C-alpha cells in the first residue's frame, strides 16, 4: 500500500484569547473531537508561514504551504489569473479588477457596478484580445463583479499604481495609473493600462448588456478599475522537482490559482463557498477521490478566516466545528497508510479582524508516526508539541519526507 498525505487547511484558524469566551481562543472554545484525535494520535507544533511576527495574506500563505519559496511571490494579479484558468506566462503583468459604474467627470459611482452577476462574460469578450501598441490585452470575468486583466508584451513592469479609488470612495474619481519607479518599463505599462481603461469604457457603455441594465433601472458595468499588479515569476514547481502529484480542493480562486501555479491540480465545485453553508462533505469526498490519483491532497476551508475578519468569535468557533466535521469525514475514510495533517495559512484574531504574525497550530498523524504528549489541537497545547515552532517550508518538507520524496543530503 502506497503512502499518501491529506492536508486539511482551516484558513485563519489561529487566534488570541477572547474575554467573551472565558479567555479561550475560538479553537480552544470549540468542540473538536476529530482535531483532538489527530493531536492525540500524532505529533503537534506551531508554524510560522515565513518567520515569527510576519503576517501573510491568503495568497502568500498558500504559496508557502504548496511548497514554494516565498521569494517567488508574483503578486496577487497573476495568482487571480491562474485561478480563473487564464494562460499566464513568465513576464505577464496581471491585475485584479472590478467591473464598475463610471459617470461624467471620471467619477466611479459604484465600484462593483451594482454587484453585477450576469452578462460579464459578454462584456469581457469585447475587450479580450485587444492589441494596444505592441501589447496584447487578455481580460476575463470572475465571480460576480470581479475580473482579471493580463497584459502581455515586451518591456512591461508591475511597478504601476492602482486605478481603483478603493472603498468607501464610491463617488470619487478613478485614479490614473502611474509608474512607481523611473524605469521605461513602468512608464510604458502605466500608459498602456490607462488606454485599456478608456477602450473598456468606450466599448462597454454602449454594449447591449449595459443598455438592458439601464432600462431595468440597474447600474451599468461600463468601466473597469484595477489593483494588485504583479508580474509572473518563473515558478520551479516542486511537484516536478521531487516527482510527485498533488491536488488542491477549494472554493476560493486565490487558493486554486496558487495550486495551479504550484503544479497541482485545482479542484472545485459551485457548492463550495466561503460561508457556513459550504458543502463540507462534498469537499471531503472530492479530496478523498483526488487522493486516488495523487500523492498529496490539500483540502481548504475558508470560513474560519471570514469570521475572524468579522470579529465574531462565537461564529468562528462554530466555523471551526464545521472544519472538525469535515476532518472527521476524512478520518473515517482514509486507509492506514494515509497521513493526515492539520494546518492554517495564517492567524486571523477576532480582536484585530485582520491577519496577524501569530503562529498557527499544526498536527500530523498516521502510519508509524512519532507521538508527543499532547491530546488537544489548539494554540496552547500545540505550542508544547514535538514538532516545535517551525516555518511553513519546514512543515511542507516534513510531509514530503513522510512520502520519502526528499533527497538525502551528503553521502
Written overview of the protein:
This protein is an alpha/beta fold and 411 residues long. The chain has 2 domains: 4-73 and 236-402, Alkaline Phosphatase, subunit A (3-Layer(aba) Sandwich), CATH 3.40.720; 80-231, no CATH class. The chain is 32% helix and 20% strand. It has an 8-stranded mixed sheet with strand order 11-10-12-1-13-14-2-15, with helices on both faces. Helix 3 (58-65) packs parallel to helix 9 (253-261). The mean pLDDT is 95.
List keywords for this structure.
alpha/beta, 2 domains, 8-stranded mixed sheet, globular
Topology:
Blueprint: E1 4-10, H1 26-29, H2 33-41, E2 43-48, H3 58-65, H4 76-83, E3 93-103, E4 107-110, H5 120-127, E5 131-132, E6 135-141, E7 146-152, E8 172-173, H6 184-204, H7 208-215, E9 223-231, H8 238-241, E10 246-249, H9 253-261, E11 265-267, H10 280-291, E12 296-301, H11 303-309, H12 313-331, E13 338-343, E14 360-365, H13 379-382, E15 388-391, H14 392-402
Helix pairs in contact: 3-9, 4-9, 10-12, 11-12
Amino acid at each position: 500500500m502506497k503512502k499518501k498525505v491529506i492536508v486539511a487547511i482551516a484558513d485563519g484558524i489561529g487566534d488570541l484569547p477572547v474575554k467573551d469566551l472565558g479567555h479561550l481562543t475560538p479553537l480552544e472554545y470549540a468542540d473538536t473531537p476529530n482535531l483532538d484525535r489527530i493531536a492525540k494520535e500524532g505529533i503537534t507544533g506551531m508554524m510560522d508561514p515565513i518567520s515569527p511576527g510576519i503576517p501573510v495574506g491568503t495568497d502568500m500563505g498558500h504559496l508557502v504551504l504548496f511548497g514554494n519559496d516565498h521569494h517567488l511571490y508574483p503578486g496577487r494579479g497573476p495568482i487571480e489569473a491562474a485561478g480563473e484558468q487564464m494562460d499566464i506566462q513568465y513576464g505577464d503583468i496581471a491585475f485584479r479588477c472590478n467591473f464598475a459604474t463610471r459617470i461624467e467627470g471620471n467619477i466611479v459611482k459604484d465600484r462593483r457596478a451594482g454587484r453585477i452577476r450576469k452578462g460579464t462574460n459578454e462584456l469581457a469578450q469585447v475587450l479580450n484580445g485587444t492589441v494596444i501598441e505592441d501589447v496584447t490585452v487578455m481580460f476575463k470575468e470572475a465571480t460576480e463583479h470581479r475580473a482579471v486583466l493580463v497584459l502581455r508584451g515586451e518591456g512591461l513592469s508591475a511597478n504601476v499604481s492602482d486605478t481603483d479609488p478603493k472603498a468607501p470612495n464610491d463617488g470619487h474619481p478613478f485614479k490614473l495609473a502611474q509608474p512607481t519607479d523611473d524605469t521605461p518599463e513602468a512608464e510604458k505599462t502605466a500608459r498602456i493600462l490607462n488606454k485599456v481603461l478608456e477602450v473598456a469604457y468606450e466599448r462597454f457603455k454602449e454594449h447591449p448588456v449595459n443598455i438592458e441594465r439601464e432600462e431595468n433601472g440597474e447600474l451599468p458595468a461600463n468601466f473597469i478599475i484595477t489593483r494588485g499588479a504583479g508580474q509572473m515569476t518563473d515558478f520551479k514547481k516542486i511537484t516536478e522537482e521531487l516527482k510527485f502529484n498533488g491536488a488542491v480542493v477549494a472554493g476560493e480562486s486565490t487558493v486554486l490559482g496558487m495550486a495551479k501555479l504550484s503544479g497541482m491540480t485545482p479542484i472545485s465545485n459551485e457548492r463550495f463557498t466561503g460561508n457556513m453553508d459550504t458543502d463540507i462533505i462534498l469537499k471531503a469526498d472530492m479530496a478523498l477521490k483526488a487522493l486516488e490519483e495523487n500523492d498529496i491532497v490539500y483540502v481548504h476551508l475558508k470560513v474560519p478566516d471570514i469570521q475572524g475578519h468579522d470579529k465574531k468569535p462565537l461564529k468562528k468557533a462554530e466555523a471551526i466545528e464545521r472544519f472538525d466535521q469535515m476532518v472527521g469525514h476524512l478520518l473515517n475514510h482514509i486507509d492506514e497508510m494515509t497521513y493526515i495533517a492539520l494546518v492554517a495559512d495564517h492567524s486571523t484574531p477576532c480582536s484585530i479582524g485582520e491577519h496577524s504574525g501569530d503562529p498557527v497550530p499544526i498536527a500530523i498523524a498516521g502510519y508509524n508516526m512519532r507521538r508527543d504528549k499532547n491530546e488537544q489541537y489548539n494554540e496552547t497545547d500545540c505550542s508544547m508539541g514535538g514538532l516545535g515552532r517551525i516555518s511553513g517550508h519546514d512543515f511542507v518538507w516534513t510531509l514530503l519526507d513522510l512520502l520519502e520524496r526528499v533527497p538525502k543530503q551528503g553521502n
